[in-house]
Structure prediction request, 270 residues.
Amino acid sequence: MMRIPTSALIGLILTSAFFLMALFAPWLAPYGVGEVVGDVWEPASWEFLFGTDGIGRDLLSRMIYGGRTTIFVASAATILSFTLGTTLALSAVVIGGWTDMLLSRFIDLIMSIPTLIFALVVLSVVPVTLPVLILVMGLLDTTRVYRLARAVAADVNVMDYVEAARLRGEGTRWIVFREILPNVLSPLVAELGMRFIFMVLFVSTLSFLGLGIQPPDADWGGIVKDNKEGLVYGVPAALLPAVAIASLAISVNLVADWVLSRTTSLKGGR
Prediction:
């Protein structure tokens, strides 16, 4: 029977709680995301468990809906970056030659531009909608996934079983998805958790700068932006999203570390 370490169990519980909160946000939030229900920056009470924000909206409801938006955007962008980055990297390694060289040099060119600056330039000239935000974030992060996947796949590509598949006449798709991909999953799984957290921080940063999630929608970065002036008066409303982001980051990384150790041990036991 598989025994789950305490740290991984805590990570699973917290991560599941965050994702369930995002999934059932409309049923968990006591008020609407933009509904003004009290005075400005009311303290925590039985009516408003986290108090209210800078214009009298229930902060708990904003946090729940904000978590839903943040997790959805980060998850979608992470899936896009890993799907595209891994596919391109493994294909480049298997095909080799000019395809590999040109694609790798193009990725290096994109990576030479700071990601945040690149995103700010793009989002400043296009309408900022959820699909556009996900597309920009996912494509920019594809470069990081590509470099990792290519580095790992290059070592696997010279193994005897890959060469045997070529000699059998297997095509590129078979070699990529049946021979190489299963043997590079361990580092990719560990990177998946890190890239997801990077996406959470990325979208929160963009929202704090005004080019992320747009009102009336909420996300954790936008909540910090809306309530940062309250810190001067000792109002902790801007700190709650930071605590939520830190908790999500820790829980996801605990799960990713456990999955990495499991896949590594299973591979070593064959």
The chain has a mean pLDDT of 86.
